[in-house]
Design brief:
Elements: H1 3-11, H2 41-47, E1 51-55, E2 58-64, E3 67-72, H3 86-89, E4 93-98, H4 115-128, E5 134-139, H5 141-152, E6 157-163, H6 188-192, H7 198-203, H8 207-217, H9 227-236, H10 240-251, H11 253-260, E7 270-274, H12 279-287, E8 293-297, H13 305-308, H14 310-321
Parallel strand pairs: 3-4, 3-5, 5-6, 6-7, 7-8
Antiparallel strand pairs: 1-2, 2-4
Helix pairs in contact: 4-5, 8-9
């Protein structure tokens, strides 16, 4: 596995969208099914023994008992990416799985997609729910937000788990647009996502192609992302506002890199979980970003850890959070 491929998997997948006028979500996941036939968030949450809620501009599902555990998803997914691990975790923790700003049932404003602002969204929600501090875990874009949460809201962070992706840093500027044959894979979507307006024209109503591309290319076993999940993700990114908002996470990387230069190390206990391919790269990165770091590989995974090997992720989270 060459360094560019490791970097590709370590950074995760980018959104395909561009900036247009903002949109505000409604607490909509209240019906049993969407017009596309995809189950609503309320129905999906109930199927896991959880409740679908909306507050402070954010959709989230909540349930269980015990210490609060916030889970933040990535692209091109929603809170549903944690559906295989939520029921087991809810037996020990109060689980709170969010749709980030711009994602799924959450609001899609015109701006505020830098990870520091998105971390503030999470902080505002947990305070609204009555918590002074939480355990927080994030994957992909959610890992970037969780990192920002841990350094900007230290007193509110009990423990932090980052899955397979690091915070944007200046090394992104060194990624080649064209990779020589046999020397890796270009992060082509990072450049595509900087384009204004065109992604909405190309992807609106066609998001299933994008979802299938990444769900087939990144897992070691693509069948671990089942048909229902693919339909759920495709529906979440099917409209122009969702495409525009997802893209804004990547357009904000410039701001994220500036913010990152001002951050100290994560001081909360910090667990990094990686795929088969990103372990060595991410171990080196995260060793410099925390004061109490351990990095573990999830066997048999390519990027979507919680869906590819949920039992291993459950075991890692439970062991880390219980000590």
């Amino acid at each position: 596995m060459d360094i560019n491929r490791r970097r590709l998997l370590a950074l995760g997948a980018g959104a395909a969208a561009a900036a247009t006028a903002g949109a505000v979500a409604t607490p909509a996941a209240a019906t049993e099914a969407t017009t596309s036939g995809v189950p609503s968030d309320a129905a999906l949450a109930r199927s896991l023994g959880l409740r679908s809620k909306y507050a402070k501009g954010q959709h989230y599902v909540i349930g269980g008992q015990g210490e609060p555990l916030v889970l933040l998803p990535g692209w091109p997914q929603t809170w549903w990416e944690f559906h295989k691990i939520l029921p087991a975790l809810a037996k020990r923790y109060t689980v709170i799985a969010l749709d980030l700003r711009g994602m799924g049932g959450s609001d899609k404003p015109a701006d505020g997609y830098d990870k520091k602002t998105m971390a503030r969204d999470v902080y505002d929600l947990i305070r609204h729910l009555g918590y002074d501090s939480v355990n927080i875990a994030g994957h992909d874009i959610g890992a970037m937000v969780a990192h920002s949460f841990a350094v900007n809201h230290r007193a509110a962070t009990r423990k932090v788990v980052l899955m397979d992706v690091g915070h944007p840093d200046p090394s992104l500027y060194d990624q080649p647009l064209l990779v020589r044959p046999g020397q890796g894979i270009s992060l082509w979507w990072f450049a595509f996502n900087q384009v204004q307006g065109l992604p909405e024209q190309l992807i609106t109503g066609r998001s299933r192609y994008v979802v299938d591309y990444f769900m087939d290319a990144f897992p070691l076993d693509p069948s671990t992302i089942d048909e229902r999940s693919r339909r759920i993700y495709a529906h979440a990114y099917s409209g122009p506002q969702a495409i525009r908002a997802g893209n804004a996470w990547y357009q904000a990387f410039h701001t994220d890199i500036v913010d990152f230069a001002t951050y100290g190390r994560i001081t909360a206990p910090f667990l990094g979980l990686t795929s088969e391919f990103s372990h060595d790269f991410m171990q080196a990165v995260w060793a410099e970003q925390g004061t109490d770091v351990r990095v573990h590989k999830i066997p048999g995974t390519g990027h979507f850890l919680a869906e590819e090997n949920p039992q291993a992720v459950i075991a890692e989270l439970t062991a880390f959070l219980s000590h």
